[in-house]
Write a structure and sequence with these properties.
By secondary structure, this protein is mainly α. Helix content is 69%, strand content 6%. The longest helix is centred in the first third of the chain and has 21 residues, at 57-77. The protein starts with a helix and ends with a helix.
Length: 225
């Protein structure tokens, strides 16, 4: 048999094998493509989901209605544990949830603004009450106001500052000043009780004491060992 005939025979045999194992060949090719170009795969999946969402808005709306009905049913039948799975997931995957929320805000800023505006309209009285309470506590606990102003001015005169809790380098335009011992726990509004904090640490700590905050999964991921 000539070399050309052998090559043709091998090609026919290979084509026959590929035809009979099409699913395995496709899976192998998809795996190799995904490993070679992860960014293109991620973008392709995002475009595929967006395309599916545009083609099937009724199905998505029906799914959301079912989810809302199930959540309402759980809140009525088991109010104590209705949010327990969500709280557990957010506590154990806080950094992942934070990144997803950031991406969602970037992709859909108009939805984020609308939801935030709706919440503020519904909970305006809470904001006013919390601000009034905070101002009263701050005025009652203020010690050496001139020293506090000098401390804040010295920090803001620099381009960057380090978070007291997680040591993250943060631009001074984005820093927060946090009370190490919260005002609601008896802390003083003084230079000794103030520290520089990044937005995430300040919001996650809120009005917790350091010992209480250190027990949470969030603090364990942020605080340096």
């Amino acid at each position: 048999m000539t070399p050309d005939a052998e090559r043709a025979k091998a090609t026919a045999r290979h084509a026959k094998w590929v035809a009979s194992n099409r699913d395995a060949v496709n899976a192998y090719q998809r795996k190799r493509w995904a490993e070679a170009s992860p960014e293109r795969r991620k973008r392709s999946r995002e475009l595929g989901r967006a395309s599916w969402a545009r083609r099937t808005p009724e199905q998505i709306e029906e799914h959301r209605r079912k989810q809302a009905a199930y959540a309402k049913h759980r809140r009525k039948t088991d109010p104590e544990n209705a949010y327990a799975p969500l709280r557990k997931y957010r506590a154990t995957h806080r950094l992942l949830v934070r990144e997803r929320e950031k991406q969602r805000r970037l992709l859909h800023p108009e939805r984020h603004k609308a939801a935030h505006k709706k919440w503020r309209l519904k909970n305006g009285w809470r904001l006013k009450l919390n601000r009034a309470k905070y101002r009263a506590l701050k005025m009652a606990a203020t010690v050496n106001l001139a020293g506090i102003k000098e401390f804040v001015a010295a920090i803001k005169s620099k381009a960057f500052a380090h978070c007291y809790y997680c040591e993250r380098r943060t631009p001074t335009a984005d820093i927060h000043f946090d009370h190490i011992v919260p005002l609601s726990k008896g802390g003083a509004h003084s230079v000794e009780n103030l520290c520089v904090a990044c937005a995430h640490c300040n919001h996650s700590k809120h009005n917790k004491a350091l010992s209480e905050w250190a027990r949470t999964n969030i603090a364990q991921q942020l605080l340096p060992l």
